[in-house]
Structures are given as structure tokens and as C-alpha cells.
């Protein structure tokens, strides 16, 4: 009986892992232009809205100040907009 992956996604097999391991130590290049090139209050607010993150820390400065911050913050997922590799994406496995 074959095990199913979470959410019925593809399974990683030993060949996929070996292929990925063979890339250890190889230089990676970035081929895609980043979606964002700087984090501004507006880009953080828009990124949060686009990803469906309704946390008021990302768009409400008054709310953020109640928790000791100087102003609203950028959501951690905004790093994806700059470069997938900056957050650990390496590709090479099913679903990537």
C-alpha cells in the first residue's frame, strides 16, 4: 500500500533526494526578478492584503504601538517577494 502525502501532494522518493543532494556545494544563480525591491509601509500592507494576512500589526500603526512597536510591521512572509532563495527555497523536489 502506497502512503499518501499530506493534502494528496506528490511524494519525495530516494531518487529525488539524491538528485537534490548532488547539488550541495554548487553555486546557485537567481534568474527571476524580485517582486519587491524595498520594504515600505505600503508594500508591507499590500503584501499582507495579497496573501490574506489580516493581522493588524501589518497595517495599523496604533495597534502595533500598543504592543511596543514604533509603527506597523512587515509580515515575515514578505521575504518571499524579494527572493525565494533568501528564505531557503532550493527547488528540486516534487511540488517546488
Question: Quick one: biggest sheet?
Answer: none
Q: Outline, from the CA principal axes?
A: elongated
**What average pLDDT do the residues reach?**
81
Q: Compute the number of strand runs.
A: 0
The radius of gyration over CA amounts to: 18 Å
Helix fraction by DSSP (H/I, runs of at least 4): 25-40%
Query: What is the succession of H and E elements?
Result: HHHH
Count of DSSP helices?
4
- Strand content bin: under 5%
**C-alpha termini separation:** 25 Å
Low-confidence regions = none
Class of secondary structure makeup: mainly alpha
What does this structure look like?
- This protein has helices spanning 14-21, 41-50, 61-65, 79-82.
- The protein has 96 residues and is mainly α.
- The protein has a domain at 41-90.
- The radius of gyration is 18 Å and the shape is elongated.
Topology of helices and strands:
Elements: H1 14-21, H2 41-50, H3 61-65, H4 79-82
Structure at a glance:
With 96 residues, the chain is mainly α.
What descriptive keywords fit this protein?
mainly alpha; 28% helix; 4 helices; single chain; 96 residues; elongated
Amino acid at each position: 500500500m502506497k502512503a499518501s502525502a499530506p493534502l494528496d501532494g506528490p511524494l519525495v522518493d530516494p531518487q529525488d533526494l539524491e538528485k537534490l543532494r548532488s547539488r550541495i556545494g554548487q553555486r546557485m544563480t537567481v534568474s527571476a526578478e524580485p517582486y519587491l525591491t524595498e520594504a515600505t509601509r505600503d508594500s508591507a500592507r499590500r503584501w499582507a492584503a495579497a496573501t490574506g494576512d489580516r493581522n493588524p500589526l501589518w497595517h495599523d500603526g496604533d495597534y502595533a504601538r500598543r504592543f511596543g512597536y514604533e509603527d506597523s510591521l512587515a509580515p515575515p512572509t514578505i521575504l518571499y517577494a524579494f527572493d525565494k532563495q533568501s528564505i531557503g527555497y532550493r527547488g528540486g523536489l516534487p511540488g517546488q
